UniProtKB/TrEMBL annotation:
Residues 1-17 have a biased composition (Basic residues). Residues 26-35 have a biased composition (Low complexity). One of its GO terms (molecular function) is ubiquitin protein ligase binding. GO terms for biological process: ubiquitin-dependent endocytosis. GO terms for cellular component: cytosol; plasma membrane. It comes from Lineolata rhizophorae. Residues 1-48, 404-425 are annotated as: Disordered. Residues 97-296 form the LDB19 N-terminal domain. Pfam families: LDB19. InterPro entries: Arrestin-like_C (IPR014752), Arrestin_domain-protein (IPR050357), LDB19_N (IPR024391). This is LDB19 N-terminal domain-containing protein. Gene3D superfamilies: 2.60.40.640.
Amino acid sequence: MDHLRRHSLTRLHHHSDRKSGTSPKASATSVASGASSGGASGRAATPPTAPAELSIVIESPPVVLYGSPRHSTGALFAGQLVVDVARDAEIALGALELAMVGTVTTRRPVGGAHCPDCVAQSKELKRWEFVGGEGVEGGAPAPAPAPLRLAQGRHTFPFSYLVPGHLPATSAGHIGGIAYKLEARARTTGGEALALERPVKVARAIIPMPENERHSLRIFPPTAITAQVTLPAVIHPIGDFGVEMAISGVASTATSLQNTPQRDASTRWRLRKLTWRLDERERHVSPACARHAAKVGGAGKGMQHEDVRTVGGDEVKGGWKSDFATGDGRIEVAFSARVNPAKKSVCDVDSPTGFVVTHALVIEMVVAEEWVSKKRPNSPTPTGAARVLRTQFNVTLTERSGLGIAWDEEQPPTYEDVPASPPTYNQVRDVDLAELDEEAERLHLAEES
């Protein structure tokens, strides 16, 4: 969604009286072109009764993009724009259109919160022009087609869209966010305007595969300790995921202690404590509008912001298995990690606009050195030395896929070698109908006793 521009249809928003207590559906009512905003007494004038109302009915499942942005085939999005004409009324629509708009917002704008062009940048993804398409924004239109006359009742206008698979998912971060919405606009020949907005949530789900588990090897110099870690490549905001570690190189060999005072003993590293945490790193580039471009060095540039917070963590104080008798020693650790739902984490996002969210699993281990005599192997003596071993692994946080599949995998299979017409027969044998009657007489139901 590069070079996002502010959507021009937002100029049609009209301010309604906040004290009227109207419902959200009633907010999409018409506004008379000649209505005044105040009277002699200073109170707001009562708005006229709307001749029609707009509403949107979504017929497709929730918009979920399956797979990574590089491999996703998108999602089908369909619905109906409904124009409900009031009783004993008839309207003539000169323009009726619907648009799907994507908006990137920042909480740290270059020009401050008072500059709407620095706070949000919008881009129109798809437009449906049901009637006319000219004159909605108040410009000088070209010759428009004849208006559409609608009588009392409910009138539907279907729409559909294949949401591209590379779009970033809906996100609400601490320094930025991405949102999508449908904007419906209509204007009657009498100058009355109808407007409606409805948010659309776009989610991304990467289906985890057992063969995609990550197997990583970490080395902790200057010691000989190595750790083999197995963890899933994809995690979810709700639910646990397992992590397995096999730590080796925690016991010294006899040859390495021949020239030391402890040549009749062996040293080893004992695991004392293990902590883990999930870090969420959010990075966003706040673009500058034309008025504030000088603050960042010119047009087309922005200011980068970064925020790191912990969305999950715990401490493991026991439960591992230590074996110092075989080879160079081995410690096996297995624990469950999870995202804290109270932190309201954001799924991974990589937007061309500069809004990026990533996650990493950080593991810290505290190991203490001790030596044990060969004569008393069950009585280790601490040496006083300890080390903190730290490592991290990048993980992908996405929504669960559930039972859904991509739209292109729902179609029935096609066969290239099967012709469209029925098969032909080279030989045809004539059959006497009388013979068939005799065969049919043999087939009968058993008589009841």
